[in-house]
Amino acid sequence: MELTGITSYIIISLILFLAGLLTVVSKKSIIGIFLGIELILNSAALNFAAFSRLTARNLEGQMVSMFVIVLAAAEAAIALALLLAIYKRYRDINADNLTTLKW
Amino acid sequence: MNNLESLTYFASEGFLSVYIILLLAASLLIRKEQGTPGLYYSLGIFGLAVTLALEIVACATRPGSTEIFHGLLRSDSLGRLFKILCLVSGILFLLFSLLARETSKRFRDSMEYTVLALSLCLGMMLFIASNNILMLYLGMELLSFTSYLLTGFVDRDERTTEAAVKYLLYGAVASGVMIYGFSLLYGLTGSLDFSAIRAYLVANQVSGSMLFISIAFILTGLGFKIAAFPFHLWSPDVYEGAPTAFSAFLSVGPKAAGFAILMRVLYQVFGVGAQAEAPPAAQFDWTFTIAVLSALTMTVGNLAALPQRNIKRLLAYSSIAHAGYALMAVASRSAFGISAVFFYFAVYLLMNLAAFLVAIVIANEYYTERLDGYEGLGWKGPQGAFLASAMAIALFSLAGIPPFAGFIGKVYLLMAVIKKGPGLYWLAVVAVLNTVISLFYYARVVKMMFLSKRVKGAPLSAMTTERYVSYAVLGVLTFLTLLFGLYWTPLDSLSKLTMNFLN
Question: Exposed end of chain A (fewer CB within 10 Å): N or C?
Fold first, then answer.
């Protein structure tokens, strides 16, 4: 079996994606949830790069994966700013604190 | 079309980008104590007004549909009209920010607030005009990131930061899932360009689980933007926590942008109706999926609105329900459906923003967002009577009662569904039943304002300049709601223009 085929890339990115979703659902710390989101974004970036090399045969996909990485960094900056605000208020970054707004 | 030629089609976005940078540079020269919210908001409104004017000129002089910047963006009437709608809501957003207490007096960061608001509008315009997966993703993230920041911008109480964090987490997951879906679509078709994807799907009769997974994931991301049923959970929390002016904007501008791009993706990539060039296997029949989503969205939105006691939360659930109504026309999968969605959003802008403006005035006066604050409002002198009548007109229009514009909007949406044929009649029935449910909670607010003789709280304070401005804006919005309920031909001919993007 050839290990560098497109199938292995799809499987790896799928595993990354599912691991990311699982992390988002199960983590209590907001930082943990955010790491899960990064995994999801990276699985998409991996997909783009792999498809660009192996099926589409153009460079557009690689370009998108660069943009995904940049936007993930921007998102992290915003998330950390908001986390600081949360930390100042609760002295904690546990997502279970966020219960004021419901129904 | 190459980059240099494209610039002529890009005048409004280009101007706005330059204006944002200039504003940012100019603000460095103004000392913090000198820059008042009034100054910055008027600069922001000026910038958006010029952008709007450029957009209207472009809409009148360049009617055709053209791909610009090597196919990254598309200049067509659907995009242009939705951009105009979003810019109008953006201007009203800054105006409302000036009128709301939390973002006007002693608000020290109005410069950053204005720049973020303008960037949000730019993001919306690029999002609506995108013709390429990359551009769609960039536009959506520019729109989302600035929204997260503006939600948590005024550090009022614990609700604000909580709303912003929830918005960020839900939004980031939704956009991550969406870009994963797009990556699968790219893998299947080998292109990022919508028309090239479409051509590939038609030529190669692509079908199978990969395509369905990718469509489901893409719908997740776009469904989040318009707050459709399984992805609506963020919206009531964010509307309650965000500054009221921003909640008002969020329920109109970004939602309309989300609808524009949803229709673009569904129609341009996955096809409209039974077109001759498309063999059946290449068609993913999304009509039923969207119809079910639409029915669930309106039902969940209306049922959840029933027990609400906070006006912003009530309007949030009502706006979820309205997204459900508009999805109905998207499901009809016809050119008429597109124009019905535009028409609906145009009247929705008027009535929903009028309701939010009353909420802002009341919150300024009584420091409350709870419905008790509205008790006996109609009997508090001429001011109270005016506010209460404007609110009543807005709410009845939202419910879809005949003499108001909301009724005409709903008629168009239902017509789009009925024209589709018997297959979707059930959806029309669900929508009519939902209107009845919604009437209950809208009428309850009106009942509190007029039928409760027990006048609670202090009388309204004396008129100020600010108050005159709010009443004038409220008067205009209410007048237009009434006018388009009686004479809607101009709006109708405008919305018909959106159809020609299909040719």
Answer: N
Q: State whether B176 and A58 contact (CB < 8 Å).
A: no
Domain residue spans of chain A = 6-91
Q: Is B381 exposed, middle or buried (0-12, 13-18, 19+ CB in 10 A)?
A: exposed
Tallying the residues shown for chain A, one arrives at 103
Nearest CB neighbour to A86, from listed B165, B180, B186:
B165
Total structural domains in chain B? 1
B429: in domain:
yes
- Interface probe for B, chosen from A14, A21, A23, A37 (most Cβ of B below 10 Å), is A37
pTM of the model: 0.93
Residue to mutate among A57, A75, A86, with most B CBs inside 10 A, is A75
Contact in structure between B178 and B222 (CB atoms under 8 Å): yes
**How many residues make up chain B in this entry?**
503
Condensed to tens digits (0 to 9), the pLDDT of residues B300-352 reads 999 999 999 899 999 999 999 999 999 999 988 888 889 999 999 999 999 99
Dist. CA B254–CA B151, nearest whole Å: 13
CATH top class, domain A6-91: mainly alpha
pLDDT digits (tens, 9 = 90+) for B42-93: 999 999 999 999 999 988 888 778 888 888 998 888 899 999 999 999 999 9
